[in-house]
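STRUCTURE REQUEST FORM
Protein name: Gfo/Idh/MocA-like oxidoreductase N-terminal domain-containing protein
Source organism: Lithospermum erythrorhizon
Requested output: structure tokens
Priority: standard
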Amino acid sequence: MADQYTIHFGILGCANIARKVSRAIKLAPNCTLSAIGSRSIEKASKFAKENEYPDSIKVYGSYDAVLDDPDVDAVYIPLPTSLHVKWAVLAAEKKKHVLLEKPVALNLKDLDIILEACENNGVQYMDATMWMHHPRTTQMRGFLSDAHRFGQLKAVHSVFSYLGGDDFLKNDIRVQPDLDALGALGDVGWYCIRAILWANDYEMPKAVTAWREPEYNEAGVILSCGASLRFEDGKQASFYCSFLSNLTMDISALGTRGNLRVHDFVIPFQENLGPFYVTANSGWVGMSIGCDPPPTEHLIKTDLPQEALMVMEFSKLVKNIKVNGVAPERKWTSISRKTQVVVDAVIASIGKGFVPIEIN
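Status: completed
Returned output:
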């Protein structure tokens, strides 16, 4: 079995995002990449060579072979969303801990199948929403919790968009209905919804209403959409996600005493530095010619990129299970499930003519 202090990862598939996560595994001090598997040995070998993996890494021509490897403790699954149920469940049944790329499932029913398999087999589950693990996120949470500087949350707005080129919009997995049918909602909308839930300390909205006129490709996959969320006590939220507009990654949270803004929440513009901006207890100056105090910039440094911090946290949880015999941490299960509930509500609202979908 794997060394008790080092968690050995296997990766199912050679998706482009797997390059980034395999680098993260290399950078993280408490885990190592042990195996890579693809649908063919040729593709897996090519991927290993292109990413300069050491010769010690096992290269397999199937996903099953990775799951059958006794030295693999955990698997990262970057496969198309339509394949998540099959391979995440098999991984759990093989007692492999599951780090699952987002969107984690096409719908809540599928996600619950995955989560039940992880629960029944005592394995750790986490979705690969990387920005959750940046130290900036903890610092921003502290500001939102500051009653004197931020006050009570009143509204959250989030945007994540990027401009996909012609080839992307025709051929990428994320626009293929049989692979990733959620399109932009699943790929970039997932982050926006997570940001709204995070800002609300994971309180669920009472209702979700999709915006009219979402944009689709010829195959019926969403290329852009948005929605409004209504919470208790009059709190409001909205998001917009798109493959059709310039790169934007914003969160804006408005409180009774202050506000928070971040312009690169998904992937920091600088890998080792995460800025955010706050305004607290500000008022007009003179003839409304300025505000005092002005917004302040906070620069949060990190020695490791957020994706490395993510695999470090995941590996720490896996070690606690394997070495210390503790139960899996279910916080990540709850957060994933809440995000999926809102994704499903947006789809339901669109399908029912943009009516509000109540969430119980």
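Reviewer notes: Residues 331-351 form the longest helix (21 residues). The mean pLDDT is 96.
Form closed.
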